[in-house]
């Protein structure tokens, strides 16, 4: 009997239609699915996935199942689950799902434990909560695991720290590091979906506002680009001098967060670090400032510090909490400080997740075929996988590119030929 824990199975029909809608914009994953269906490269593999339960993720799960894998899926964030999608995966695709939008912390971890009951050979993570739970609380299951994949920057940081400490007990492929992932998903996906989440939650006009982006990695670049495109004056805060210099050269104002706090209208954290907006920063903000996070965990915003400064709070709109400070100023926190693009909107567009999840599918296949050769460390996605995904994406778009001639190839691999 299929095990699952979802909000309402009656939502399945709506979810199925939305999964089909997303699938139309995921041609690369569709090509991989067609091959997987014929070859069954994951036959016999048990795979536990801790991912955002969205329409795009559903198409990845369907692809993996077509490849022969036995699956269990739980959410990688308490607010990112699309309940209708979870229902459709259970009812129509017979995939065990353990995820409910808005679940509390205890339920979140209970769902991770339930997904691990499959005794996975491969883990698929987004933020490394599944991997860390395995290593801390379910160590007996580690002997079954061949390897894993990790979707996001935050998770890769955690896993590299584990590897450096000698704590990582199986190889993991950092899907986030693939060019076809971070150059597109992080920049274009995060950029668009973050703005989408903020606008759905607040319905505020961005044009003319001072929009503060905390962190100028690939995700920060995307958010800054899209905010500027909407007419906002963008301010970037950074700790890395190279990224700060790049932001200046891209035409943005750069300053310390404490200075940005005094002028900003909207703040977005996207660093992967803790307390980026601290109690001290909140104390300097203008009345009416809006604060959101699009980094993986809500730790980027010091919510406990905001509570200390406040005399009251209330939910004034869906996904908007109004904190009234002791001096009367009001600060608005979006989506409880969790991923605003997935909590208040639908996450990345399917077209970019097409490449990200193509990386996931092909990396899972690679792990299963090469597990015996891999060490207990974090690997980048093999270059041949990255290039194949780019090739397939171009093919799906009807775009052709040039090839090197024999003479050109020889020149690039020779040191004898000069100017």
UniProtKB/TrEMBL annotation:
<feature type="binding site">
    <location>
        <position position="238"/>
    </location>
    <ligand>
        <name>NAD(+)</name>
    </ligand>
</feature>
<comment type="function">
    <text>May play a key role in the regulation of the intracellular concentration of adenosylhomocysteine.</text>
</comment>
<dbReference type="InterPro" id="IPR042172">
    <property type="entry name" value="Adenosylhomocyst_ase-like_sf"/>
</dbReference>
<keyword id="KW-0963">Cytoplasm</keyword>
<feature type="binding site">
    <location>
        <position position="181"/>
    </location>
    <ligand>
        <name>substrate</name>
    </ligand>
</feature>
<protein>
    <recommendedName>
        <fullName>Adenosylhomocysteinase</fullName>
        <ecNumber>3.13.2.1</ecNumber>
    </recommendedName>
</protein>
<feature type="binding site">
    <location>
        <begin position="215"/>
        <end position="220"/>
    </location>
    <ligand>
        <name>NAD(+)</name>
    </ligand>
</feature>
<dbReference type="GO" id="GO:0005829">
    <property type="term" value="C:cytosol"/>
</dbReference>
<feature type="domain" description="S-adenosyl-L-homocysteine hydrolase NAD binding">
    <location>
        <begin position="186"/>
        <end position="347"/>
    </location>
</feature>
<feature type="binding site">
    <location>
        <begin position="152"/>
        <end position="154"/>
    </location>
    <ligand>
        <name>NAD(+)</name>
    </ligand>
</feature>
<dbReference type="InterPro" id="IPR020082">
    <property type="entry name" value="S-Ado-L-homoCys_hydrolase_CS"/>
</dbReference>
<dbReference type="InterPro" id="IPR000043">
    <property type="entry name" value="Adenosylhomocysteinase-like"/>
</dbReference>
<dbReference type="GO" id="GO:0071269">
    <property type="term" value="P:L-homocysteine biosynthetic process"/>
</dbReference>
<dbReference type="GO" id="GO:0004013">
    <property type="term" value="F:adenosylhomocysteinase activity"/>
</dbReference>
<feature type="binding site">
    <location>
        <position position="341"/>
    </location>
    <ligand>
        <name>NAD(+)</name>
    </ligand>
</feature>
<comment type="similarity">
    <text>Belongs to the adenosylhomocysteinase family.</text>
</comment>
<keyword id="KW-0520">NAD</keyword>
<feature type="binding site">
    <location>
        <position position="54"/>
    </location>
    <ligand>
        <name>substrate</name>
    </ligand>
</feature>
<keyword id="KW-0554">One-carbon metabolism</keyword>
<feature type="binding site">
    <location>
        <position position="185"/>
    </location>
    <ligand>
        <name>substrate</name>
    </ligand>
</feature>
<feature type="binding site">
    <location>
        <position position="186"/>
    </location>
    <ligand>
        <name>NAD(+)</name>
    </ligand>
</feature>
<dbReference type="Pfam" id="PF05221">
    <property type="entry name" value="AdoHcyase"/>
</dbReference>
<dbReference type="Pfam" id="PF00670">
    <property type="entry name" value="AdoHcyase_NAD"/>
</dbReference>
<dbReference type="InterPro" id="IPR015878">
    <property type="entry name" value="Ado_hCys_hydrolase_NAD-bd"/>
</dbReference>
<feature type="binding site">
    <location>
        <position position="348"/>
    </location>
    <ligand>
        <name>NAD(+)</name>
    </ligand>
</feature>
<keyword id="KW-0378">Hydrolase</keyword>
<feature type="binding site">
    <location>
        <position position="126"/>
    </location>
    <ligand>
        <name>substrate</name>
    </ligand>
</feature>
<feature type="binding site">
    <location>
        <position position="151"/>
    </location>
    <ligand>
        <name>substrate</name>
    </ligand>
</feature>
<dbReference type="GO" id="GO:0033353">
    <property type="term" value="P:S-adenosylmethionine cycle"/>
</dbReference>
<dbReference type="InterPro" id="IPR036291">
    <property type="entry name" value="NAD(P)-bd_dom_sf"/>
</dbReference>
<comment type="pathway">
    <text>Amino-acid biosynthesis; L-homocysteine biosynthesis; L-homocysteine from S-adenosyl-L-homocysteine: step 1/1.</text>
</comment>
<dbReference type="GO" id="GO:0006730">
    <property type="term" value="P:one-carbon metabolic process"/>
</dbReference>
<feature type="binding site">
    <location>
        <position position="273"/>
    </location>
    <ligand>
        <name>NAD(+)</name>
    </ligand>
</feature>
<feature type="binding site">
    <location>
        <begin position="217"/>
        <end position="222"/>
    </location>
    <ligand>
        <name>NAD(+)</name>
    </ligand>
</feature>
């Amino acid at each position: 009997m299929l095990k699952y824990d979802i909000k309402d199975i009656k939502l399945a029909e709506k979810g199925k239609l939305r999964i089909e809608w997303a699938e139309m914009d995921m041609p690369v994953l569709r090509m991989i699915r067609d091959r997987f269906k014929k070859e069954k490269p994951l036959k016999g593999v048990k795979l536990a996935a801790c991912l955002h339960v969205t329409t795009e993720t559903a198409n990845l799960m369907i692809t993996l199942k077509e490849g022969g894998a036995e699956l269990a899926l739980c959410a990688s964030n308490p607010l990112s689950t699309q309940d209708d999608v979870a229902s459709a995966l259970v009812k129509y695709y017979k995939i065990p799902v353990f995820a409910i939008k808005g679940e509390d912390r205890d339920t979140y971890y209970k769902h991770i434990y339930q997904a691990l009951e499959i005794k996975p050979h491969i883990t698929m993570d987004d933020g490394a909560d599944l991997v860390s739970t395995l290593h801390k609380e379910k160590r007996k299951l580690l002997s079954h695991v061949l390897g894993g994949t990790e979707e996001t920057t935050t998770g890769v940081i955690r896993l590299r720290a584990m590897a450096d400490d000698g704590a990582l007990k199986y190889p993991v492929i950092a899907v986030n590091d693939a060019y076809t992932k971070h150059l597109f998903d992080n920049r274009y996906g995060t950029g668009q979906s973050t703005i989408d989440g903020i606008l759905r939650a607040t319905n505020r006009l961005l044009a003319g506002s001072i929009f503060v982006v905390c962190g100028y990695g690939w995700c920060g670049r995307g958010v800054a680009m899209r905010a500027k495109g909407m007419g906002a004056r963008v301010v970037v805060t950074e700790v890395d001098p190279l990224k700060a210099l790049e932001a200046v050269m891209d035409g943005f104002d750069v300053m310390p967060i404490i200075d940005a706090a005094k002028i900003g209208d909207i703040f977005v954290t996207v660093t992967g670090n803790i307390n980026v907006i601290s109690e001290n920063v909140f104390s300097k903000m203008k009345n009416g400032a809006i604060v959101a996070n699009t980094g993986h965990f809500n730790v980027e915003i010091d919510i406990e510090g905001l509570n200390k400064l406040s005399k009251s709070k209330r939910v004034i709109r869906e996904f908007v909490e109004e904190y009234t400070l002791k001096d009367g100023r009001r600060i608005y926190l979006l989506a409880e400080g969790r991923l605003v693009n997935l909590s208040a909107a639908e996450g990345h567009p399917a077209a970019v997740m097409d490449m990200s999840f193509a990386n996931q599918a092909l990396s899972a296949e690679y792990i299963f075929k090469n597990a015996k050769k891999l060490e207990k460390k974090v690997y980048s996605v093999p270059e041949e996988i990255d290039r194949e995904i780019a090739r397939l994406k171009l093919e799906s778009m009807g775009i052709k590119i040039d090839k090197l001639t024999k003479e050109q190839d020889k020149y690039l691999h020779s040191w004898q030929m000069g100017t």
